[in-house]
Amino acid sequence: MFSVGKINIDKAILLAPMEDVTDIAFRKICKEFGADVVYTEF
Length: 42
Fold this sequence. Notes:
Elements: E1 2-4, E2 7-9, H1 24-32
Antiparallel strand pairs: 1-2
């Protein structure tokens, strides 16, 4: 198990931010395929 603060994540599958790739549609697809944490680049 992986945790960030008070949030526990079972599988710890994280999506690293990639410039011009991690738009909302891509993040939603990744969530559908099991990513636990997704976020955007700076």
